[in-house]
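Hey, can you fold this?
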Amino acid sequence: MIGLIIAIVIFNFIASKTNKQLSMNQVVHIWTFTVAFQATFDVFIEFKYKAYWYFDKEIDWNGLLPHILLVPAANIIFLNFYPFKTKIIKQAFYILFFTIVILGYEMITLLPKPWGYFHYGWWELWHAALLDPILLLILLGYYKWILRLERKACLQSNKKDEAK
């Protein structure tokens, strides 16, 4: 639990202090999407298939902390530093780098209590290595969709203002 609390403080501090790219609306969207997406994913992988779990195998309040306070902050950090206006090779390397960082952090979470809080069932690190880039691409797709919706909303608002 100590490791989780330290990580929550550090990740959220970094996410809030370094965010120069995302508007508050985008942060709320990403936060909400992350919680919903991870909760949906974990219903199957964590609870149905017992691949991994937080703290213990049963549903508990402590297991909500990484879902609500840790992973969304990590996604905000990922998006804030993502090199959007660069060549695709640089973007691919960023995803690879961030995946390595995530895997390193996951290894730390596997430490014994009080530092670690994550446990593997049949899940192994290579599962995460294969899945994390896909999840990051889904996050990027969602973020780009939000940007398109915001642009559309601004255009509609401007048209309404011009009509007045």
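Oh, and this one too while you're at it.
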Amino acid sequence: MIQDENIYLRLMEKRDVKYKVKWVNDPEVRRTLFFGEISEIGTEQWLMKVTTDNTRMDFVICENNNDIPVGFASVVNIDLKNSKAETYICIGEKTCWGKGYGKEVKKLLMEYVFIQLGLNRLYSFNWAENKKMIQINKNLGFKLEGVLRQDTYSNGVYKDRVIFSMLKEDYLKAYK
């Protein structure tokens, strides 16, 4: 478990599948994600597969005062040879939007990647239209590396994605 002021992250378990399916299948939540609708059976199968994959860690986000999931976050594409990893975050409970949880989760993931894993580079992709996540990245000191123009076909249109990154040296200067 990784904990901060208001939330904590714990490894995703089978009991969390129903929450992830509910959030991903909500069109308003899904518009910030890079994948389509999912099923409980398919998500259970996915979870069983990824729990043995040492290139990723999949977490559930919970508020400190209870163990009810409010979202999920992952560190994926963990590349020890090149000392880098990618993150993504989803606050699925819309009642928790605007509470600063996204920023708090991102900070926990930064500490996990740079301190616990000891990696050199952390990056993330976001839709260019996802202004809230872009602002979180900027506020935390991530650098915009570029815009991937019409990079992904989603909901009938080609959409731009942006990529942000932070290096361990920048993290240590700003946070340690």
